[in-house]
Amino acid sequence: MSIEILESGALTTVQDLGREGARLQGFGTNGVMDESSARLANALVGNGQDFAVLEMTMLGAKIRFDESCLFALCGADMKPELNGEPVKMNKLYKVNSGDILKLGFAVSGLRTYLAISGGIECPEFLGSRSTNIKCIVGGYYGRKLQRGDILQIGSKRGHIYNPNYAEVPYSPPSQSVTVRAVAGPQYDMFDEKGKNAFWNTPFKTTVQSDRMGIRLMGAELTAKGTTDIISDAIVKGSVQVSANLQPIILMADAQTTGGYAKIANVITADLPLLAQLKPDAEVRFKQVTVKQAEKAYKKFIKHYNKLSF
Question: Which of 26, 53, 158, 251 is the most buried (most CB within 10 A)?
């Protein structure tokens, strides 16, 4: 089975939960920006949570199915239509050969995830099907999708217990979020004024944000000296502070090392909230301990592991 891309949208790529263990070779994690939406979409169609999906940003794609299958959309509401009829978010649908799914501009949130029963079949690179555009590897020939692309769908289909009830109430992604974070490895490089500003004042997202990082604008995060450091490791959620004393939250396509001080690290369980933020959205930070961060992630994983429809 396959699907054909009739219109590609602004940025549509193949992503899964990312490639782990490859940073030593210089390859970032990549993978979906909004892990919550991708996991839910896969659960709705009976896939494993690590199956590859399509991630669409800001403007969605137009897709033709060549065979009957199941699909679900989660994340940003792009006012999807199936053969011209409205489609609900967070709901399982069945399509037939020749059916056309079309998505428009995101009216809430920023990124939408399309899961298809069987998952998107692309060759794995270092254990993942996620697209790394900069390195031109993974996904569909290492690039964003284009008109005329034909993607294969896997034959391994999960079991849906009752398709009529495969639906989850939909709440539009918020554009004002508080994310939990732990103190970063260079936290002590910042003075008390800078630390207080980070934890106690709101920041706004800027248009200079993408899958690599989310740039924020707000109070200056003053340091005891320079914020330059000898480059060290970067992980998803690292909050770097560059020479302009403004935070940058590094995301799925972040580099593996960086030379700016990291004041904090957003916990994994809260990264999906950031993935749906448009420019001029509000972000606040709440300090937690590493133990609290680990507990939150275990709760996050447990929630999706027990989903069945």
Answer: 53
Contact criterion met (CB below 8 Å) for 262 and 247: no
Measured CA distances, 47 to 39, 172, 187, 295 (Å): 9, 24, 41, 26
Task: Estimate the crossing angle of helix 290-305 against helix 35-44, to 10 degrees.
Answer: 20
Give the DSSP letter of residue 81.
E
For the full predicted model, state whether its pTM sits above 0.90: yes
As a whole number of angstroms, the distance between CA 134 and CA 143 comes to 8
Phi, psi at residue 136, to the nearest 5°? Answer: 55, 50
Residue spans of alpha helices (H) in the chain? 35-44, 192-200, 271-275, 290-305
Look-up of token digits 């027990």: 306
pLDDT on residue 21: 87
Residue type for 183, please?
Answer: A
Per the structure block, which two tokens stand in for 238? Answer: 């690292």
CA–CA separation, 240 vs 251, rounded Å? 11
What's residue 27's pLDDT?
87
Token code pair at residue 127 = 């254990």
Over residues 203-217, the pLDDT tens digits come to 999 999 999 999 999
Residue pair 113/73 in contact (Cβ under 8 Å)? The answer is yes
